[in-house]
Amino acid sequence: MYKTTGFIAWAMRRFTGVVLALYLFVHIWVIGSATQGAEVFNRRLAAVQTPFTHIMEILLLAAVIYHGFDGIRLLLINWFKITDQRKSMFYAAFAISAILTIVGGIPMLLYALEHM
Amino acid sequence: MTADNTNGARRTAQVRVQRFNPDTDRKPYLQTFTVEVTQGMTLLDALHQIKTQHDGSLTYRRSCRHAICGSCAMSVNGHNMLVCEQPLTDHLDGRGRVTIRPLAYLPIIKDLVVDRTSFWEQYLRVKPWLIPPENIPEQEFRMSPEEVAALNNAEQCIMCGACYSGCTVVALNKKYIGPHALLKAFMRVLDPRDSAPGDRLAGVDVTNGVWRCHTILNCIDACPKHLDPTHAIETLRNLAQKRQAYEQARRERQARLDQPIPQEEPSDV
User: Fold this and answer.
1) CB-neighbour burial class of residue B39 (10 A; exposed 0-12, middle 13-18, buried 19+)
2) Which structural domain, as residue segments, surrounds residue B234?
3) What letter does residue B191 receive in the DSSP assignment?
């Protein structure tokens, strides 16, 4: 593949998009069980309350934040055609995503460690 | 001249060229040639030296040597460029090597020559020629500086294929019109002399047209003329959504094509 910042952004956007779509299935699988009674709902909720899933939730947070900010970057390009700033906009979206992931991920990590 | 090797008074560079002969090879491979570096030597000069002094069977396209014919677009160290305008020493790595491959995502005919059939087929889809109005002025068409500026230098495209080959969407979907053809469609749509902007916009306002672009922006990075196909695609997307109003504005504009300066044009182009 032709490797540029645009390609990296696209690949990450696609990957995080697939991750979010897959997460939605799990999310619906858990939440949807509420229609089958409290016992089923609690059982499914407990199934995803493991140290592994707590760690995975941090990665989910990273995927959500990056996908969102990359979407904003794309909208700025689509609406304002500021293509000459394409590289710096990618770096900015990535840096903001990384910072917010760290800020949000630390308490999640501490919570996961407490419940191991 | 930092990366090339020194051998007495002679400086050399290792040029790795992708070779492929469909009659004898199952798949492409890299072959390394040692070339003598001379002052002002371009990558194309290096290929010439290989062909004349090392292996006459090396096959590649070239013509004008002035970065205007677009024949010699190739992938150098993974980036598309015209090898006739690129100094060899600018692309040598720390070990004095450079790697030259044919344009990616296109079938290889032999060595560095690719089959551009899909490139030209997509190009023809947008009818890249001018469709003039019936009332052609007796003397000349008049365009304002604003109208020329709105073209964003699109007329400078030399159809080298660097953007088409660099496009990830093209790599995954050969039905996509491609940045080269969309840039040409943009140029014709914005050309006040053209009388079919509505048909052109309808032609690119399709699934494999402007909406297939994922704004990966490789086309801009790949273009040796520093053009902006993404800007063109975004403009076409905007105009496609107000096609009828744009057609009407064009008809009004063409009624005064022979007059000095237009009074108004669509504002977002």
Assistant:
1) exposed
2) 117-254
3) -
In this structure, what DSSP letter does residue B266 have?
-
Question: What confidence tens digit (pLDDT) does each residue in A4-57 have?
Answer: 999 999 999 999 999 999 999 999 999 999 999 999 999 999 998 888 899 999
- For chain A, the domain total comes to 1
Which domain covers residue A106, as residue numbers? 5-114
- Rounded CA separation B123/B174 (Å): 12
The dihedral of CA A4, B189, B151, B181: what is its sign?
A: positive
Interface contact flag, A9 B166, Cβ < 8 Å: no
Asked if residue B42 has pLDDT above 80, the reply is: yes
Q: What is the dihedral of CA A47, A53, A57, A59, to 10 degrees?
A: -150
B153: left (phi over 0), alpha (psi -120 to 50) or beta: left
Q: Given an 8 Å threshold on Cβ–Cβ distance, is A4 in contact with B171? A: no
Q: Is B227 in contact with B242 (CB distance < 8 Å)?
A: no
Contacts of B133 (CB under 8 A, 6+ apart): B193, B195, B254, B257
User: For residues B196 and B190, what is the distance between their CA atoms, to the nearest angstrom?
Assistant: 10
**Residue matched to tokens 């196909």:** B229
B269 to chain A: which residues are within 8 Å by CB?
none
Domain check: are B106 and B48 in the same one?
yes
A110 CB neighbour count, 10 Å cutoff: 10
**Residue A2 main-chain phi, psi, to 5 deg:** -80, 110
Which is nearest to B263 in space by CA: B167, B98, B147, B172?
Answer: B147
ipTM entry: 0.85
Q: How far is A77 from chain B (nearest CA, A)?
A: 8
Give the H/E segment covering residue B116. none
CATH of the domain at A39: 1.20.1300.10
Q: How many CB pairs under 8 A join A and B?
A: 52
